[in-house]
Amino acid sequence: MTQLASTREELAKLLAPARRDGAVVGFVPTMGALHEGHASLMRVARERVGGGPVVVSIFVNPLQFGAGEDLDRYPRTLEADLEVCEREGVDVVFAPSVDEVYPGGVSTGSTSEDVTVAPGPLAEVLEGKTRPGHFGGVLTVVAKLFGLVRPDVAVFGEKDYQQLALIRRMSSDLCLGVDVVGAPTQREPDGLALSSRNRYLTPDQRAEATTLSQALYAAQREAEHGVEAALQAARAELRRGKDVDLDYLVVTDPALGDLPANPEPGTDARILVAARVGTTRLIDNMSLTIGAPR
Ligand code: PAF
């Protein structure tokens, strides 16, 4: 049975037996509004920890939302989320208040007296360009949650690929000792990546939103002819979406660095896209193999 903790003390109490027994602790941080994508992360965590506890946090983190973003309207569905956790055999849900996570208040900017995590240059590109401060907010809350849960393994979706890369870097660069595992993106039958933000889409926008994944699939098919061919195929698909306002479409190496100018046949790469469909910003990404059939 899933147990619910809303304070640091309750969490510590629920995890005390596992700590005493030296059990492997698995962790899936979320902002709630749980869907099949989150459920798949819980299953990956369960596989990793065996009989050890799987902990899920549900916390809409104000620090990672910029002015004018969807903090207020972000869906909060705790009852339904607990049902998902129960179904997936999660042991502990940690659903703290904002005060519990930020007892000193949520302050941003250079005048803050709080210690926060500086995410480095990888946070300035792609999502970071349009969402200044976003990844600092993500890494700060994940570091706090790692400190509270003290997991051995933490599972994040590949859907937020830049976030996953940055959390990996944080765990390794700050020697946090957490094994950060990426889990594949879950998709609707028509290819749309599952996301809590999909619920903002009108039926027409929902239909147009598939353009993103269709563009990435087209790039995968053309990647054997090189990076430019892959990008062209993706752009052609994206142009079909009338209400799709492209932010970026890029091909990088798997760690989000630059690819060599003339990649060897069979080089692994990543293609990432972000676009606004109506007023909703969506992101997606897929792996590519450059210069060789997949
Ligand atoms: O991916 C998310 O849901 C959030 O960014 C995370 C990792 C839970 C931090 O708030």
From TrEMBL:
- Please write the reaction equations for the catalytic activity of this protein: (R)-pantoate + beta-alanine + ATP = (R)-pantothenate + AMP + diphosphate + H(+)
> Where, by residue number, is the active site?
H38
Tell me, in one coarse class, where this protein mainly resides: cytoplasm
In terms of Gene3D superfamilies, this protein maps to: HUPs, Pantoate-beta-alanine ligase, C-terminal domain
InterPro entries per record: Pantoate_ligase, Pantoate_ligase_C, Rossmann-like_a/b/a_fold
Pathway field of the UniProt record reads:
Cofactor biosynthesis; (R)-pantothenate biosynthesis; (R)-pantothenate from (R)-pantoate and beta-alanine: step 1/1
Q: What class of enzyme is it?
A: ligase
- Residues reported in the UniProt entry to bind (R)-pantoate: Q64, Q163
Q: Which CDD domains match?
A: PanC
Cell compartments where the protein resides: Cytoplasm
| Keyword annotations from UniProtKB, A to Z | ATP-binding, Cytoplasm, Ligase, Nucleotide-binding, Pantothenate biosynthesis
EC number annotated for this UniProt entry: 6.3.2.1
* Binding-site list for ATP: 31-38, 157-160, 194-197
User: What are the binding positions for beta-alanine in this chain?
Assistant: Q64
Give the family from UniProt: Belongs to the pantothenate synthetase family.
* Misc note: The reaction proceeds by a bi uni uni bi ping pong mechanism.
**Oligomeric and partner information:** Homodimer.
Name the job this protein performs. Answer: Catalyzes the condensation of pantoate with beta-alanine in an ATP-dependent reaction via a pantoyl-adenylate intermediate.
Task: Provide the protein name.
Answer: Pantothenate synthetase
**Species annotation:** Nocardioides luteus
Q: What is the lineage of its organism?
A: Bacteria, Bacillati, Actinomycetota, Actinomycetes, Propionibacteriales
Q: Which gene encodes it?
A: panC
